[in-house]
Amino acid sequence: TAAADDLQLKIFHTNDTHARVEAGKYAGMGFAKISSLVKEARNESDNVFVIDAGDAFHGQIIANLVEGKSIAQIYNAIGYDVMTPGNHDFNYGVKRLKELNEMTDFPVIAANITNKDDTQDYPFPPGEIKTIDGVKIAFIGLATPETAYKTHPKNVQGITFQDPIQSAQKMVDRLQKQENPDIIIAVSHLGLSEGSKYTSADVAKKVDAIDLIVDGHSHHELKEGRVINDTPIVMAGEHTKNLGVVNLTIENKKLVNSEANLITKKEAADVKPDPEITKLVQEIKQEQDKITSEVIGKTAVELNGARANIRTGETNLGNLVADAMLSAADADVALTNSGGIRDSIAQGEITKGDIIRVLPLGNYVVVKKMKGKTLMEAVEHGLTQYPAHEGLFPQVGNMSIIFNRSKPAGDRGMFLHVNGEFVKPNKYYRVATNDFMAAGGDGYDMLKDTETVQEADGLAEIVIDYIKDKGTIAPTQNGRILSVAKDN
Ligand code: ATP
Ligand code: ZN
After folding, report:
1. Separation of 143 CA from ligand 2 center, angstroms?
2. Measuring CA to CA, which residue among 351, 331, 341, 303 is closest to residue 419?
3. What is the value of pTM for the model shown?
4. From the alpha carbon of 155, which atom of ligand 1 is closest?
5. Which ranges of the chain have pLDDT less than 50?
6. Which of 23, 200, 246, 379 could be joined to 11 by an S-S link, Cβ 3.0–4.6 Å?
7. Residue 250: which residues within 8 A CB-CB, separation 6 or more?
């Protein structure tokens, strides 16, 4: 039997939803069902929180076309309480994320993001405090420092990502001194990847006073959470495939029990979608359809942007993008990262929306002037991660690459041709690339210091115009990038 000052707290959580708004279209249950589950719980109890652990405002046309505003509207309608920003939430720039934070009825929190190097000056609220039945619950936001190199440098200009473990400890100390919270919950976009420098596991190990970590970024589906150093870490996969639930039992203002679970899409099969959300999504889409449904041309073949293909070799879509770049830039060759090309297009009519879906990162075309040896260095760099599906793998126009995949990284490029001739190390070439790479994104540091000779239009616009101009396209994979295996 519950004592008078016992409290049952229910926390719903999502992460890495990446604008997979609707059920049916994607593998997830969609936000209308999530809303129904939240509303049902809120009808029964006031002690319900809804949390998002980042990567929400970006990823599909419905979000990208309006720079995240639609997601803010949907999250408001569901009644989210708090969120921490994911790396992709910076894709429209920090200024836009601040605007989104104004649009949301809940705060976007990050205790380890500061203005410049000033560790006291926060662009986003570091945390949030809620009091329920006299129990004080503090939330601390933790963003991934990987953002600083995973997004375009301009998107994080003026802000610094601090060590999340140190920042968390500092916030805990400050809270305990000033606010004396009963429960401390970290909302983090750090994840549990082995390859990450800072993970939520590190936070659990090193910051003792944290009671629960609601996590994202590594897309783990933790069915019952993972307990590290007595701290439960919960994560709900991705794309609304699950709604995470944590039931907390608090006695005498102390957390005495927590039970984590995931409501899977399958388990939510019979949940009725919330008509309020369905209606809101329809309204948003009708407004957007006016723009995105415009047919710009036709393709006689499927345009291949599948991650596993485009990040390991030449594809016809990569060639199309590179050729379109050359049509709009005054350049000898085009070199663009496959990670910027994010989806395929089926055979048939092509709409404006298709192009925005494939090229959602707001890139524009930049022409850099460099010596042949720098171009070779850049190509060599693009091959370093092969055969891993990493975004740096190049797609090219008006040049061809033959590389030896048996050689160690850094020594793979064999032949590089421009206009059918070997690249000359000391000759200058004008290389059309995108603004991300031009700024050293994906590790293309060698491009950063070369002279910028042209800044052209947006990449998506350029590709749209290129297709409009041709009417029907049938790009092929025509041997621009060839991989061979040789022992020496
Ligand atoms: P997630 O957080 O969704 O798990 P991720 O961002 O860690 O994914 P990827 O989906 O591989 O991982 O995306 C990263 C890649 O996207 C980068 O390596 C780069 O190739 C590409 N990319 C990111 N931002 C830009 C940009 N502004 N312009 C061009 N390409 C970009
Ligand atoms: Zn992420």
Report:
1. 9
2. 331
3. 0.76
4. 27
5. 1
6. 246
7. 6, 7, 8, 9, 135, 182, 183, 256
